[in-house]
Amino acid sequence: MAQAASRRSHPTRPPGGGGDGGGMFGVPGGNPAPRASDSKAIEAKVWDYARDGKFDKVFQYLAHYPDLISLQGRSGYNLLHQAAYHGIDSQRLRRLTSAGGERITLELLQSRSKHGDPGGRPADVAEAQGHRDVAAALRQMEAELTRVAVGKPRAVEAPAHAPGGRSVSASHGLASKAHAGEAAAQDPSGRVVAVLLLSAVGDAIGFRGGEWEFNEHGKVIEAQMRKLGGALALVPSRETGWPVSDDTVQHLATLRAIIDARAVLPKSSHDMSGLDQLMGQMARWHVRSWSDMGGRAPGKRCERGVRALSQPGARWDTAVPYEAVDKIPGCGAAMRAMGIGVVYH
């Protein structure tokens, strides 16, 4: 009855169960969490925007509260159900499905509404509303993410051109290299895991809580290392005062962004939509990584960039204005790029 009453009050709205959220609410990037009453108000507002098809407004909130991607109404509708009902365009659909990472996206795609009208999975809702292209896109995405979840190779379309504009074949393109990286990552004893672990160990040793990273005298470091029993005797860890530095924290953020955006990675240097999705995830993960900088020494320009990206409505491509300088003051971008090499090696 409540569902029917809701539709009578708002005849143009799809069934969504009102403004009840799923109760999940997280604030990335170290921002203070809102009070419970504020959380419910924000959830209700986002749900109303989705129910009315105002997804540009929804994206503004997801940029700062990504856990809201898991909102669900009483009918069992989630944000993908609402998007399917309205038949949003492919660019917005890709943006929405990349907001929560692969695992959460697959759960949302497979979620069935309990008594929504039309009911079923998001793809079923799109089909019932006559949005066949949206239904097909959702089903293809669900199939691909299911294959990834069970560890089977996922078909990746080879890009027509490499980022530098050169033509590449399917066997040597970025897609095939990313595919090889994915296969290696699925094996715990594979080279990818070894690279990540050895890099973290080397970073922690070289950093040594800031004591060695900023020591310009190699012989002093060598003498101290010998007193500790040599390189093979070192066991770096946060507990012993040898944490990894900001470099490892941030290159892992880069890798996480690539993994979460894997379904929408740019297919060529001209795929601006894919690039926007990927870099949106980059911004999100690097902002989140800043809450793990205690005891580390991140660069000032990196901090400036993260603070700018943390502002409401900030975009990855305009948050920090381009600044032409004669001498580059740091190497922050290069130090955060290892995740890219891991995927495309």
From TrEMBL:
<feature type="compositionally biased region" description="Gly residues">
    <location>
        <begin position="15"/>
        <end position="29"/>
    </location>
</feature>
<feature type="binding site">
    <location>
        <position position="247"/>
    </location>
    <ligand>
        <name>Mg(2+)</name>
    </ligand>
</feature>
<comment type="similarity">
    <text>Belongs to the ADP-ribosylglycohydrolase family.</text>
</comment>
<dbReference type="InterPro" id="IPR050792">
    <property type="entry name" value="ADP-ribosylglycohydrolase"/>
</dbReference>
<dbReference type="InterPro" id="IPR005502">
    <property type="entry name" value="Ribosyl_crysJ1"/>
</dbReference>
<keyword id="KW-0460">Magnesium</keyword>
<dbReference type="Pfam" id="PF03747">
    <property type="entry name" value="ADP_ribosyl_GH"/>
</dbReference>
<feature type="binding site">
    <location>
        <position position="245"/>
    </location>
    <ligand>
        <name>Mg(2+)</name>
    </ligand>
</feature>
<keyword id="KW-0378">Hydrolase</keyword>
<dbReference type="GO" id="GO:0003875">
    <property type="term" value="F:ADP-ribosylarginine hydrolase activity"/>
</dbReference>
<protein>
    <recommendedName>
        <fullName>ADP-ribosylhydrolase ARH1</fullName>
        <ecNumber>3.2.2.19</ecNumber>
    </recommendedName>
</protein>
<dbReference type="InterPro" id="IPR036705">
    <property type="entry name" value="Ribosyl_crysJ1_sf"/>
</dbReference>
<keyword id="KW-0479">Metal-binding</keyword>
<dbReference type="GO" id="GO:0046872">
    <property type="term" value="F:metal ion binding"/>
</dbReference>
<feature type="region of interest" description="Disordered">
    <location>
        <begin position="1"/>
        <end position="37"/>
    </location>
</feature>
<feature type="binding site">
    <location>
        <position position="246"/>
    </location>
    <ligand>
        <name>Mg(2+)</name>
    </ligand>
</feature>
<comment type="function">
    <text>Specifically acts as an arginine mono-ADP-ribosylhydrolase by mediating the removal of mono-ADP-ribose attached to arginine residues on proteins.</text>
</comment>
